[in-house]
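FAQ: What does the model actually see?

It sees only this:
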Amino acid sequence: MQESATRVLAHKVGRRSFLKMAAVAGAFGATSGFASSGATRSATEEEVKNPFPGSKFVKTICSSCSVGCGVIAEVQNGVWVRQEVAQDHPISLGGHCCKGAGMIDLVRAETRVKYPMVKEKGQWKRISWDVALDRISAKLSDLKKNDGPDSVMFLGSAKVSNEQAYYIRKFAAMFGTNNMDHQARI
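And it is asked to produce this:
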């Protein structure tokens, strides 16, 4: 049994691939010892107590869903650097879920889309809000005219409030369709 497992492994990793991986691992091991010597120092007591001097605290709410849990964002030079749970918040009462705990990562993500984009000739290009809304409305008009209002489906979200959900449903009805659902069911 063990012999057949060894044979299967031997077929997956060839000798040349094994030697390449061993060389890379050896080089990494040798250089990592040099790279870490003297590169860091222990934090001072003041740095441990206040790692971001001059920052300000902004009370805000988590936008991951429509509950609206309290978050205290620590902002330094216009950048969200750290966050805490708002202990005195009337809704979350000093707690929030894992999505709220990771909200800072969502806001600071390099892949976050911050403005309308369109892909032209294989490249993403920034467009204005007016152009984006004009394109969307033209596409919706074309779909309704050519394929009928039921060719479109509108989706709600856990991120929207009751009032926003009402507006989305009213827009779908105005468009002429009952194709409305919640994104969690997809």
